[in-house]
Amino acid sequence: MKYEKAENILPHNIIELLQNYIDGGYIYIPRKDENKKSWGENTETKIYLKNRDKEIFNKYSSGVAVKILAEQYFLTESSIRRIIRKQKNYD
Questions:
Q1: Using an 8 Å Cβ cutoff, are 80 and 70 in contact?
Q2: By mean pLDDT, which of 1-5, 19-23, 65-69, 85-89 is the weakest?
Q3: Contact, 56 vs 73, CB < 8 A?
Q4: Burial 26-62 (b: 16+ CB within 10 A, else e)
Q5: What is the rounded distance in angstroms from the CA atom of residue 47 to the CA atom of residue 55?
Q6: What secondary structure, in 3-state letters, does 53-68 show?
Q7: Using 50, 70 and 90 to split pLDDT, how confident is the model at 53?
Q8: Is 46 helix (H, G, I), strand (E, B) or coil?
Q9: pLDDT in tens, 61-83
Q10: What pLDDT is attached to residue 46?
Q11: Nearest CA to 2 among 35, 26, 38?
Q12: Are 15 and 4 in contact (CB under 8 A)?
């Protein structure tokens, strides 16, 4: 999200109207519904996490203990268990 100066993009009468509600503060203007993107859509993060979770499940299925997986992936044991449960539901 980037900030824009109101005076650079809005007509003066709209700025004055907004100042009646918030004078000198910050305001967030949400995206239109048709322009919204789902989490991870702009980056490779979603794909990375999906692959990581499959890898964790495969290692667990091969006999690697939850505690070891937590140490290897720098996650809590409860996070590893959650990932395993989620992966079991996909199969």
A1: yes
A2: 1-5
A3: yes
A4: eeeeeeeeeeeeeeeeeeeeeeeeeeebeebbebbee
A5: 12
A6: HHHHHHHHHCCCCHHH
A7: very high
A8: helix
A9: 999 999 999 999 999 999 999 99
A10: 87
A11: 26
A12: no
Domain definitions of the chain by residue range: 6-90
3-state secondary structure of 78: helix
pLDDT score of 91 = 62
Q: For 8-14, which contacts have Cβ atoms below 8 Å and span 24 or more sequence positions? A: none
Q: Give the number of residues written for the chain.
A: 91
H or E element at residue 72: helix 66-73
pTM flag (> 0.85): no
The CA distance from 64 to 68, in Å, is 7
